[in-house]
Amino acid sequence: MAFLECGPFSASDGEGRTLFTGVSLALDDEMCAVIEGPSGGGKSTLLRHLTALNHGPESERRLQGRSYEGASLPDWRAAVTLVAQDAPMIQGTVEQNLRFPFDQRRGAERRFEVEEARRLLAAVDLGQIPLERHVRTLSGGERHRLGLVRGLLWNPPVLVADEPVSGLDPETERHAFDLLLRFARRPGHLAICVLHDPRLADRADCRMRLNLDGLERA
Amino acid sequence: MSDVIQLGPWQLAVATLLVLAAGVISAILRLGVERRLGIAALRTVVQLGLLGLILERVFAVRNPVVVIALLLVMTIFAAREAVGRATRCYRGILADAWLTMAVTCLSVGAVVTQAVVGVEPWYEPQYVIPLLGMILGNSLTGISLCLDRFLDHLQTRSSEIELRIAFGATRGEALSEPLRDAVRTGMIPIINAMAAAGIVSLPGMMTGQILAGAPPLQAVAYQIVVMFMIAAAVTLGAMLVVLLAGRHFMGPDATLRLDRLETRNHR
Fold this sequence. Notes:
The complex is a heterodimer of chains A (218) and B (267). Chain A is α/β, with parallel strands linked by helices. Helix content of chain A is 33%, strand content 25%. In chain A, the strands form two sheets. A six-stranded mixed beta sheet of chain A has the order 6-7-8-3-9-10, sandwiched between helices. The longest helix of chain A is centred in the C-terminal third of the chain and has 15 residues, at 140-154. Chain A is globular, with a radius of gyration of 17 Å. Chain B is an all-alpha fold and 267 residues long. Chain B has nine helices and two strands. Chain B has helices at 9-28, 34-61, 64-84, 93-116, 125-156, 158-166, 171-196, 204-211, 216-249, and strands spanning 88-89, 262-263. In chain B, strands 1-2 form a two-stranded antiparallel sheet. The model of chain B has no long low-confidence stretch (mean pLDDT 90). At the A-B interface, helix 2 of A face helix 6 of B.
């Protein structure tokens, strides 16, 4: 039995054209898996299905043997968490954006660690940004990195990241991806990310290509 | 009441000139509202005229069944008005608006007519109908603003809502911000009206009673009751209607169903 098992997922685009059908995933922990494929091919949609954000026909979702559906989907999302591509933010400060998951019921047993937040921010070259800064004033690239930091700080068993390092300069990109790899290569953890850069994908532990009939392991 | 100045057709014709003036201004400035203004004015005349005729009959009959029936018809029309001009809607919006109006307005109306005013007999149309009319009219504005804001929030700030969901928010947690935002918006008119009452504006009902010759302090007492009952009805209504609306866009699995939101094109 794999660490994470889910599917099958199918999706079509706005015009009714099929993006993919019957995609299932079975992945072990302690690794970083990469999903590649052409633009507009449905990679982001697949990640949204994986993290149960899209409504669709019933699919199986299992983590460490436990099955999630219906009213337990919030638990699933707290454990298989999406870091979205467009780096959405709640209105408020950097700290509020990093803290809110811990204030929700699913984060009630855990504490927001300011020191850990500072350490992660520094690791992606955001160390100079005060926690009281309003996110409205951040640049696109800064928001993007803040989104990744939020996911890492939340520290879920499975982090699902949609182009987590795109739009960064080469050195920051390397630092950010190092962080993600270190996160993923721990027992009881897994990262699944969509990447466009083959050089980065080479450093991951498992590469998959999304096409019409499913995910193909490279 | 013999000292009340009577209005006849001639006086109404003069008042019509005022609306015509507004229409001319609209035409000159090309606001494009003269048609809608004209239709609205015409509706006012026809609807109020019909209401006058109906009220004369209802007051004469004084039958509880007739009064209840009229109240129900009023809630249906209020619900239609509340959702009629919204740019966004969903299947079942009319039913939600009607249920909200019926529950909140009738219960607040019951408290006011029975416990506060102590109407005898309990269905006395001269009190029950105008009071409920005022509750419905204000509640309608509140509910319509509230629903509009709620649906707008769901659409324009969906990424924020989904961000919370992505980190495991329950339905209550994901919808709490849109809900608060909507209820706050729905309550603005009544809060403004209460804050400005007596300083900026002479509220409508008080004006009416004073024009009809009632002692000012009596008119004030009635107006306070009316303000408070409207505040209660609007607040309860705003909360109930977004709770009802929220169910359509999120189940216990907390998946945001924006596919159920429809956008209407008006005009």
